[in-house]
Amino acid sequence: MSDADFIREVEELYQRIAEADTDNFVELAKIAGSDIDIKTDLVGADLSGTNLSGADLRKANLFGADLSGANLRKANLFGANLSGANLTGANLRDMNLRRAYLRYAALNGSNLSGADLRKADLNGSNLSEANLSEANLSEAYLTGANLSEANLSEANLSEANLSRVDLSAANLSAANLSAANLSAANLSKAGLSKADLKNSQIDQKTIIGDKWRLVWEIVNIDQANRRLNSVDLSYADLSNSYLVRANLIDANLTGAILIEANLTDCDLSGSNLKQAKLIKTNLSNSYLVGANLIGADLTEAILTYANLTDADLSGSDLKRTNLIRSNLTGVSFNHAIVKDARFGSNAGMSRALQQDLIARGAIFEDAPPGDRSRVLVPAGRR
Predict the structure, then answer these.
(1) Which of 14, 40, 204, 270 sees the fewest Cβ atoms within 10 Å?
(2) Which range marks the domain in which residue 188 is found?
(3) Do 162 and 290 have their domain in common?
(4) Sequence-separated (6 or more) residues with CB below 8 Å from residue 375
């Protein structure tokens, strides 16, 4: 090939690339007719700032590659080797990194929100200040990783290995940490509001605030007669916990999740349960005198024989809640949803309040004549 022919070919190639309606690296490589194997020839490659969005890089070898600032959104890197790679500040949103190898990779400040990292190997990686909100890290390996100040809100970390991980000041609100290994992990100043700690593992070397260590104990160790008066359990996930006969006088349970918890015979007088989730919770025989239940969700909860004197149920959801034989003296039902809530033999129930609740959809075992359409009829007598 003459020099003139070579120059002409280069110019034509440059023109094709310049006129291409894409800045995607993989597509440009195809246009250029490159014989580079995208999946095997990228060890140590400098791809910083490159657009690889949507690229198919399954099982690609990117060991030690520089992908800092690269756009990998929705790319498929299933089983890819990114060990030692630099992904600082990269956009990895919604991408598939399932079973990928990311040992000692630099991912600090990267965007991994919504990414699939199931069973990924992230041992020793740097994920400080990374955005991992809603990411799926179930069964991932993160031993010794740095996740300080990372955003892990609503992330799935179930069964993940987080031993010796630095999670200091990380946002773990509403994260799923069920069955995760947190031995020797550093959770100092971590936000754990509404995080699921059921069946997770902690040990003496785990650094965690007193509040959240107590939450861990409550959800993982069944124990009656707990002394929890005046404690702060706000926004804690206490679902399915066993708190029979617990002393929760004046406890702060604002926004707490107590779905299907057993709170029978508890003393919750003066407690703050505002906006708490008490769906299908058993509160039978409980003492809720003066309790704040404003905006609480008590759907299908059991409150039979409970003492709710002077409790505030304003704006609460009482759909299908069982309040038969509960003491309702001085209770406020302002703006409460009472459709199919069950009442009957209630102390403190005035005729006017009964008529108002019936008009709003409540069911009374002892409804007066003329209201038989809302009377609860035992199954054997229908």
Answers:
(1) 204
(2) 37-221
(3) no
(4) 363, 364, 365, 367
Specify burial of residue 305 (Cβ count, 10 A radius: 0-12, 13-18, 19+): middle
Q: How many domains is the chain built from? A: 3
**182, 163 in Cβ contact below 8 A?**
yes
CATH number of the domain where residue 51 is located: 2.160.20.80
| Spatial distance between the Cα atoms of 346 and 159, rounded to a whole number of angstroms | 46
**Alpha-carbon gap, residue 298 to 115, rounded angstroms:** 34
Residues 46 and 22 placed together within one structural domain of the fold = no
Is 150 in the same domain as 170? yes
What residue type is 322 in one-letter code?
N
**pLDDT tens column, 34-60:** 445 555 568 999 999 999 999 999 999
Non-local (6+) Cβ contacts of 119 within 8 A are: 98, 99, 138, 139, 140, 141
The reply to whether 263 and 146 lie within a common domain is: no
Beta bridge partners of 181: 161, 201
**Do 57 and 97 have their domain in common?**
yes
Cα-based distances in Å from 136 to 6, 152, 354? 50, 10, 49
| The pLDDT value given to residue 365 | 86
- Residues 75, 26, single domain; the answer is no
**201 and 183 in contact (C-beta within 8 Å)?**
yes
pLDDT per residue as tens digits for the range 157-207: 999 999 999 999 999 999 999 999 999 999 999 999 999 999 999 999 999
309 contacts 329 by C-beta, under 8 angstroms: yes
Same domain, 199 and 278: no
